[in-house]
Design a protein that fits this description.
Blueprint (H helix, E strand, L loop, with lengths): L4 E6 L3 H11 L5 E7 L2 H11 L3 E4 L2 E2 L2 E2 H11 L4 E6 L4 H9 L4 E4 L4 H12 L8 H13 L13 H11 L4 H8 L3 H15 L4 H11 L3
Parallel strand pairs: 1-2, 1-3, 3-6, 6-7
Antiparallel strand pairs: 4-5
Length: about 220
């Protein structure tokens, strides 16, 4: 039997919410259990319905999505939160991830991209690998001109090179081509980077690299 993941939609545009609710009905493994149009309603509905997944906008009456995100993670630590927004600013992306969002989807993305990110989040993956969001990460990395600091030799020079490309949203295959390595070698380097920086995925590694002044 297919497990049904309970979904809460939080957005102040009622027509958008209703359209998304209708489209989610065609996904056999997803079930909308609530819709909220403001911060208070989002928290109250989450407490009542205990959703597995929350699709959360950033701007809403009664508070902002980041405040709601923090509250929801405190109430339901295991809830999967995917930001669904029109904002393309890198500071919003970074802030959402730091507060525990599993995904960040722009409203001009395709429906297939949204469901792909939801499914990846269910599997425990943080997904941001789409065209516009990749541009956000590239812009973020380009703006950072902090000199490389190996932080007490935490990373080798090769690992720093790989991490800098990860921060530009390169995929493993692209990193391998750029550095003339095999994809297998890149994956091994990434595993060591995660271990050294106490990270679990690419996004956490980017945030750690920013804190350490590596990018």
């Amino acid at each position: 039997m297919i497990r049904k993941y309970k979904v809460l939609i939080v957005d102040d545009h009622k027509l958008f919410c209703e359209g998304l609710r209708q489209l989610i009905k065609f996904q056999n493994h997803l079930q909308v259990v609530g819709v909220a149009n403001d911060a208070r309603g989002a928290i109250a509905t989450a407490q009542r319905e205990k959703p597995d997944i929350v699709l959360l906008d950033i701007e809403m009456p009664g508070g902002d999505g980041f405040e709601v995100l923090g509250t929801l993670k405190a109430i339901l630590p295991d809830v999967i939160i995917v930001m669904l927004t029109m904002h393309k600013r890198e500071e919003y992306l970074i802030r959402a991830l730091e507060k525990g969002a599993c995904g960040y989807v722009l409203k001009d993305s395709s429906l297939g991209e949204l469901f792909d990110i939801i499914d990846s989040s269910i599997k425990g993956e943080t997904r941001l690998e789409y065209k516009t969001v990749r541009k956000i990460l590239r812009d973020f990395a380009r703006k950072s001109n902090t000199p490389v600091n190996l932080v007490s030799d935490k990373l080798t020079r090769r690992e720093v090179e790989i991490l800098q490309l990860v921060a530009k949203a390169y995929l493993n295959k692209e990193i391998a081509v750029n550095l003339k390595l095999s994809e297998y070698t890149v994956k091994n380097h990434l595993a060591k980077i995660y271990e050294k920086l106490d990270c679990h995925n690419r996004i956490e590694a980017i945030l750690a690299a920013q804190r350490y002044g590596i990018i």
